[in-house]
């Protein structure tokens, strides 16, 4: 498996060999540049694609799950749209997994309590979900995670084990922070892009093309568009004999410490 450590080791080894070779013959600077650019491209891809497990181990699917099970997950809530999502889930008798932002829980505590009361699983999605969170120090990342843990535990009475990085971005500082907290990182293998794609039908077609047993689907409980997608998705799953379950059920990975 390609990781940040192995990629960096490869870079260092090649640069060392080029440096030694330079004592015996002139090595064009372009070779050093190519090696550096190769390392940079891999590092950027690994940081932005959570499924690569480049910086941290992330659980993104379970192809070995028995039956046609999939997990539906929601990020960035709770929001005023979350009750509509909960209504649909309740109508179809489906449990989902919500990765919640600490500051949003403080803003909409009643909605968060409803998520818990209706039997859904919750996970940590940072406190601020700042656009610059990828630049945070280790101490700042630890604070983001632990602060949200405390808020969730205040309502649930349980410490969450799941953490989903905002934007799916990982880096060495996050890896170090997770050694302190610690949490299991939950990713996805189907990114709906429901915050980017303009129509529910196009989002649904994107999900359908990628859907397979064991999938973890990423949605956001932040818009009416996603509310429409969820209704279509649950009907599609029922018609095609899929079972929507929580991440805990799909991965056989405990969501809470107690």
Task: Tell me what the structure shows.
- With 258 residues, the protein is α/β, with parallel strands linked by helices.
- It folds into two domains: 4-48; 58-251, Alpha-Beta Barrel (TIM Barrel).
- It has ten helices and nine strands.
- It has helices spanning 4-21, 29-48, 82-92, 102-107, 109-117, 138-156, 172-180, 200-210, 224-239, 247-251, and strands at residues 58-59, 69-77, 97-100, 121-124, 162-163, 184-186, 190-191, 216-220, 243-245.
- Strands 2, 3, 4, 7, 8 and 9 form a six-stranded parallel beta sheet that branches. A three-stranded parallel beta sheet has the order 1-6-5, with no helix packed on it.
- α3 packs parallel to α9 (224-239), α6 (138-156) crosses α7 and α8 (200-210) crosses α9.
- It is globular and about 75 Å long.
- The mean pLDDT is 93.
Based on the structure, what is the oligomeric state of the protein chains?
A: single chain
**Major sheet, described briefly?**
6 strands, parallel
CATH topology of the largest domain: TIM Barrel
CATH architecture of the largest domain: Alpha-Beta Barrel
Distance between the termini: 32 Å
CATH homology superfamily name of the largest domain: Glycoside hydrolase/deacetylase
Protein name: Polysaccharide deacetylase
Domain NodB homology: 68-245
GO molecular function, one term: hydrolase activity, acting on carbon-nitrogen (but not peptide) bonds
Pfam families: Polysacc_deac_1
Fold blueprint:
Layout: H1 4-21, H2 29-48, E1 58-59, E2 69-77, H3 82-92, E3 97-100, H4 102-107, H5 109-117, E4 121-124, H6 138-156, E5 162-163, H7 172-180, E6 184-186, E7 190-191, H8 200-210, E8 216-220, H9 224-239, E9 243-245, H10 247-251
Parallel strand pairs: 1-6, 2-3, 2-8, 2-9, 3-4, 5-6, 7-8
Helix pairs in contact: 1-2, 3-9, 6-7, 8-9
Keywords: Membrane, Transmembrane, Transmembrane helix
Protein name: Polysaccharide deacetylase
InterPro entries: Glyco_hydro/deAcase_b/a-brl (IPR011330), NODB_dom (IPR002509), Polysacc_deacetylase_ArnD (IPR050248)
């Amino acid at each position: 498996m390609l990781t940040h450590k192995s990629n960096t080791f490869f870079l260092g080894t090649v640069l060392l060999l080029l440096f030694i070779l330079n004592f015996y013959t002139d090595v064009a600077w372009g070779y050093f540049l190519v090696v550096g650019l190769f390392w940079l491209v891999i590092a950027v891809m690994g940081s932005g694609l959570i499924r690569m497990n480049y910086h941290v181990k992330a659980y993104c699917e379970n192809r070995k799950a028995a039956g046609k099970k999939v997990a539906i997950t929601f990020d960035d809530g709770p929001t005023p749209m979350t009750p509509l999502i909960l209504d649909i889930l309740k109508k179809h008798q489906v449990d989902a997994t919500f990765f919640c932002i600490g500051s949003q829980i403080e803003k909409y505590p009643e909605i968060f309590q409803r998520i818990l009361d209706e039997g859904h699983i919750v996970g940590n999605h940072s406190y601020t979900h700042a656009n610059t969170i990828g630049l945070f120090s280790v101490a700042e990342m630890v604070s983001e995670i632990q602060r949200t843990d405390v808020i969730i535990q205040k309502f649930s009475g349980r410490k969450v084990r799941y953490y989903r990085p905002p934007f799916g971005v990982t880096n060495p500082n996050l890896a170090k922070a997770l050694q302190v907290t610690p949490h299991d990182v939950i990713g996805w293998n189907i990114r709906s892009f429901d915050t980017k794609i303009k129509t529910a039908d196009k989002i649904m077609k994107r999900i359908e093309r990628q859907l397979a047993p064991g999938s973890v689907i990423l949605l956001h409980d932040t818009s009416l568009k996603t509310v429409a997608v969820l209704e279509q998705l649950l009907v599609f799953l029922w018609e095609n004999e899929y079972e929507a379950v929580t991440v805990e059920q799909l991965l056989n990975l405990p969501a809470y410490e107690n």
